[in-house]
Amino acid sequence: MPRRAWVIAGTAVGLGLAVLAAGLSLAGYDAGAALAALWTGAFGSWYAFTSATLVRAVPLILIGLGIALGFRAGVFNIGAEGQFYAGAIAATWVGLHVGAMPAALAISAVWSAALLAGACWVAVPVGLRMRYGVLEVISTLLLNFVAEALVSFVVQGPLQERQGIYPQSDPIALSARLPFIPGTRLHVGLFLALGCAGVLWYLFARTRWGFKLRAVGAGPRAAEVSGRIDSRRVTAQALLASGAIAGLAGGVEVTGVSYALYQNLSPGYGFTAIAVALLARLHPLAVVAAGLLFGALEAGAGAMQRDAGVPAVAVSVVEAVVLIVVVIAAAGVQRIGLVGAARARRRAA
Amino acid sequence: MSAPPAPLLRLEGIEKRYGPVHALRGADFTLYPGEVHALLGENGAGKTTLMQVADGLVRPDAGTIRVGDAERPALTPGEARRFGIGMVHQHFTGIPAFTVAENVALATGWPVSPGPLRERVRHAAEQIGLPLDPDVRTGRLSVGLKQRLEIVKAVAADARILLLDEPTAVLAPAEVAELLDVIRRFTASGGAAVLITHKLDEALAAADRVTVLRRGEVVLRALRGDLDPAALAAAMIGGEPVVRSAASIGQQADEPAAIRAEALDVARESGYGLALRQGSLEVRPGEIVGIAAVEGNGQRELLRAVAGRVLPLRGRLQVAGPVAFIPEDRTSEGLIPELSLTENVVLGSGPEEPWMRGGRIDWRAAERYTAELLRAYDVVAAGPRAPASSLSGGNQQKVVIARELSRRPRVVVAENPTRGLDLRATAAVHARLREAAEAGAAVLVHSSDLDEVLELATRVLVVSRGVVAEPPSGEAASREEIGAMMLAGA
Q1: Per-window interface: B 264-303 vs A, CB < 8 A
Q2: Residues B68, B82: contact at Cβ < 8 Å?
Q3: Quick check: A345 and B21 CB within 8 A?
Q4: Do B392 and A349 touch (CB under 8 A)?
Q5: Chain A residues with at least one Cβ partner in B under 8 Å
Q6: B386 lies within 8 A of chain A by CB
Q7: B375 min Cα distance to partner chain A (Å)
Q8: Distance between CA atoms of B170 and B108, rounded to whole angstroms?
Q9: Beta bridge partners of B14
Q10: Mutation site for B-interface testing, chosen from A1, A226, A231 by largest number of B Cβ within 10 Å
């Protein structure tokens, strides 16, 4: 099965790049040069790999983990973008006030604030689902727009920089900024993302809570009736944790990359991360690989625009194709799975 | 029937494979006008598939279908309809949001003008002998009435051949008799009916002719006069005798009851109104108490309250722990199909299990234990890592029962524990429940099959319209007496 997953992922990416190349050729671009620029921008040098690809991969991995956690429990958090922004707002606000603290404390405070803000932002959909049965797919999605509007408000109001000219915040305190890995612009948030992946893997594979979560996601009725699991509670916990991780990603972005809050801080990380989680088939360690891939695409897109004159958004073609292939493959695997089940039954008979 | 008339329907040498599964192996089937023909066989014998070939739902790999003057390798559903073949499925196939009249119109193509349609449907239903209110939303009908609607739909669409798939599974004895009357009237007017069933007595009681399928092959054909129950049973299960032992398990009357319920009120699962009113019962260790009830009378809520899955609204309930619960629907409530057998065994384990290490799970220990359990309960599976979905229904049920009974319960609650299982798997489930009782558990079991309740239980209680009652003649209560109570509404 894992081998099949790699084959599917490889096919998806290959097909995505092929479609991109075909589209570029049809539109009159030099597809070869564009793809070369894409590659160079993402993997062309140690600096490009670390400071462009990995820097973009960090939020994708973190948010992807959060989304995978929710999906595993059967809750569809489409609002990671909003939770990311909620985390970024809280991180900025706290980050402006921790100048007197030592770095470790300042960063902990900022990250905690981001985590909490992400959880609070998703608490609204959790409450709506628990109390009124509102589908979280809809409520989390709609709250994205609210979060974006909120960012727009705070950067022109309470958090606007001192001179009051630009719609952005002042830079956060130096003590709250993450150190770089020497020789790169890659901040140490990478280790947080990798650590989260490990922790999540351990939770799913080895702990009772992780098992409960998977059971609720795979068969909520059976989890309740035979597992005596309070599936409402587990669902709520999963959604909250999912939002918290997305919020944390916002905090990491502010402390490691932007140092300030502004609109369009995220180039749609919250949405791209859904594709990351799905491509990884919700496996925490695979999320790292998928995040890396999508980070490379995002990084290469900039280079493609710069060096080949191809609009960066063209890369979303690859992302879309990957997503479609993965979803189709998942449906196909289910069908193959059924055949496999019939075969096993026959062997058993 | 010395010179039988021309057959209405003839299936010859029907072959069907689903991947590696050989569902039908050259099956022949002939249906004559005016007869009720029982198609008998265990679950998975190919009965339904064979009839779906006749109904145009399944395209055979080989064989011939002769109906009327036509001879075809396969039929489409539309052709089957034109040839007057109508199937009554096990599950309701209409649209719940439509009224009865609208569902009939959907099946027959009658024009949908409310007034005339209503009258036409009412008239048709009465003529068939299965009166129905044409204005009721179909979703609100009971299971029995939905089935009635299925029959009305088929007959109203001018079916001359009715294929009924396990039609009595959801009916009380008196309703079964009524249904058989309707079928006889239908065949008396020149139609023919096929009764798909795995119940011997039903075939014996109702059929003019019996065809027995085993593993996709016809193993016996017999006319009413030549029917021998022993031969039929042997044909169905392949020579092995049916395990049917009258259960009489040593009750320990002196021990205090393990289940004691007093004046329980339990809400309907839908949330509106009471499903169970003032229900009282006691079950002692070593007893198997069978609950006889027609679906939807509150027995489900009673069992779930006792199992601790539903909180009663009022009343006193004392249940000794641990409680084993075997829910009716094994694939949605008993097991999680996509998880492994080990994971399904771990589902619901308490902190006292050896593989539970605080918040951590020792999957190796759980896997070893599951492997042992699979062996002890004769589960046919590739191993503890196989997904539950890869098992047959009978083996899935064995896993549920293994998990629940291995926790050494003092109380066992089982809902339809053998639904959809073949005779052998059924016998195994019964044996396990008896073992649990012998080991001192109080067993509370409901089956919609009254015969199963009678066979398994040391004492029978009837739940009817939310009221729990004991038959006046106690343990000597006859099938008829209990059947009457099930329908009487206490």
Answers
A1: none
A2: no
A3: yes
A4: yes
A5: 205-209, 211, 214-215, 218-219, 221-229, 337, 339-349
A6: yes
A7: 14
A8: 25
A9: B27
A10: A226
C-alpha B183: how far from chain center: 20
- C-beta of residue B315 within 8 angstroms of C-beta of residue B368: no
Which of A209, A234, A345 should be substituted to probe chain B, the one whose Cβ sees the most B Cβ atoms within 10 Å? A345
What is the pTM assigned to this prediction? 0.75
Return all residues near A4 (Cβ < 8 A) that are at least 6 apart. A333
How many Å apart are CA B449 and CA B384, to the nearest integer? 32
Spell out which residues of chain B touch residue A343, defining contact as CB-CB under 8 Å. 19-20
Q: Which two tokens stand for residue B445?
A: 């079991």
Distances (CA, A) of B389 to A222, A315, A337, B14, B370: 14, 40, 9, 29, 16
**Cα–Cα dist B342/A338, whole Å:** 20
Token match 């292939």: residue? A325
Is B392 within 8 Å of A348 when comparing Cβ atoms? yes
Per-residue pLDDT of chain A (349 residues; tens, 9 = 90+): 467 778 888 888 899 999 999 999 999 999 999 999 999 999 999 999 999 999 999 999 999 999 999 999 999 999 999 999 999 999 999 999 999 999 999 999 999 999 999 999 999 999 999 999 899 999 999 999 999 999 999 999 999 999 989 999 999 999 999 999 998 999 999 999 999 999 999 999 999 999 999 999 999 999 999 999 999 999 999 999 999 999 999 999 999 999 999 999 999 999 999 999 998 989 999 999 999 999 999 999 989 999 888 888 888 888 889 888 888 887 765 554 444 444 444 444 3
Structure-block tokens of residue B195: 């009764």
- ipTM attached to this prediction: 0.86
